[in-house]
C-alpha cells in the first residue's frame, strides 16, 4: 500500500523491498507450481487449473516485488506486485471448493453434505468470484491512488469488503467440510472404510489424507486473509502506516509462507492420487456432469 510521508507526498512502500526474500519465494513458487502442472497433466486434474494460476500469480507478484528493490517509486511495478499477490488466494480457494465436491461424490455419501453436492461447488465458487472481483477492484483503486487520501481510503475499504466476503464463504466451507468428515465417520460408506488413515496410515493417499490436506490449505488461506484484513483495516487514511504495513517481514510470514506451504501440502497429498482411482472405476463421466473442472 502507499503511504503519506512527512511532507504530505505519498510513498508506495514504507521500506525498501528485499530482493533476496522476493527471489527466494519466486524460485520456491516456480518449483511447487511446476509440480502441480506435472500432476495436472499426469492425472488430467483440470479442476486444479485455478490452483496453478494462483501459483503463477505468486511468481509474477514476487518477481515484481524483487523489481521494486531500490525502485520504490515505480507505480507499474507496485501495481503488479500488489494485484497479483492479493488475488492469488481466491484462485487457490476455487480449487479447494471443487475438490471437496468431488471427494464427497467419490465417497458415495452425498446425503451427508450440509450443502447439496450439486450446488456446493457452484455456491462457493460464485462467492469466490465475487470476492476476487471486489478485491481486484479495490486493488486497482488503491494502486492508482497515490495523492488522494479519500480515494485511498475507498480502495482500502473495497479490499476489506472483498476479504470479509472471502472469509465468510471460506469459514462456511470449512464448517461444511468438517461436518461431512464427522458424519462419514459415524455413517461410513464402503469406500471410506476400505481406505482411510486408520487402515492405510498417514503417507498412503486416502480420502482422509486428501481431506486433511484440504483443511491445511484452507487454514493457510484463512491465516493469510485475516492478516491482510488486519493490515488494511489498521492502515487508516494514510496508507500502510499501520504496524503490519511498516514491516515487510509480516508479509512473508503471514502471506507468502502460508500460501507456499498450502501449495506444498496439496502437492504431496494431491487429490488426484485418490480421485484418479474413481475415474478408473468408470465414474468420471458422471462426475464431470455434476462438478466444474
Automatic annotation (TrEMBL):
The keyword Transmembrane applies. Keywords: Membrane, Transmembrane, Transmembrane helix. Its main location: membrane. It is a multi-pass membrane protein. One of its GO terms (cellular component) is membrane. The keyword Membrane applies. InterPro entries: RTA1. It is found in: Membrane. The chain crosses the membrane at residues 20-38, 45-64, 84-107, 119-138, 158-182, 212-230, 250-269. This is RTA1 like protein. It comes from Aspergillus fijiensis CBS 313.89.
